[in-house]
UniProtKB/TrEMBL annotation:
Residues 34-53 bind DNA. It comes from the Bacteria. It comes from Clostridium mobile. Keywords: DNA-binding. Residues 11-71 form the HTH tetR-type domain. PROSITE patterns: HTH_TETR_2. It holds the Pfam family TetR_C_8. This is TetR/AcrR family transcriptional regulator. The keyword Manganese does not apply.
Length: 188
């Protein structure tokens, strides 16, 4: 018999709770959502909710952490030279697979710290190696550059999510890389 973590009923319940929160976040900010709202929407009792999460913030944080842990795994397994193609594609495919959650996190929530987390993740990568051959790129500019690139990518991804993913993940990677190349060429 599978343990509690692998129990299909538990997995289904957690998915139902998560789906309920995502649906509520489409029209409300996280601080406006109560456990009762989540439970009513998921058609579960509060005890079931509290068996898995402390509150709505804990639930949202666990969902966000799960996404970021996958991104960190992708970073660890991807060579630096493949960040702009392979890594970016993996991340955009992850966003596509989790479209509703990502739309809520990136487009609807004003109070979240997702951009800060993405900038932190980007700063922990070896992105510096990619641009070390540029004469005008110095270590002092790295923080600004990371913020600029991540902010630009997030803006493109937000527009993609808001338009219901009209391009495939690989097409979006080409768009982002084209914009980044135009930017790099401009500053050479």
């Amino acid at each position: 018999m599978a343990g509690i973590k692998g129990n299909r009923r538990v997995l289904y319940t957690k998915k139902t709770i998560r789906d309920s929160l995502i649906k509520l976040l489409e029209t409300k900010e996280i601080h406006q959502i109560t456990v009762t709202d989540i439970c009513k929407n998921a058609d579960i009792n509060r005890g079931t909710f509290y068996a898995h999460y402390k509150d709505a913030f804990d639930l949202l944080q666990s969902m966000e952490d799960e996404l970021f842990n996958k991104i960190l795994d992708y970073i660890d397994e991807t060579p630096v030279e493949e960040y702009s193609d392979s890594l970016l594609l993996k991340v955009i495919e992850l966003i596509s697979e989790n479209k509703d959650l990502c739309k809520v996190l990136l487009c609807n929530q004003r109070d979240n710290k997702i951009l800060d987390r993405l900038i932190y993740v980007a700063s922990k990568t070896d992105i510096e190696q990619i641009y070390s051959n540029s004469n005008e790129f110095t270590k002092a500019h790295l923080n600004y550059y990371i913020r600029y690139v991540v902010g630009g990518c997030i803006s493109i991804i937000q527009a993609w999510l808001e338009n219901d993913l009209p391009e495939s993940p690989s097409e979006l990677v080409k768009i982002i890389n084209t914009v980044n190349k135009l930017n790099i060429e401009y500053y050479k």
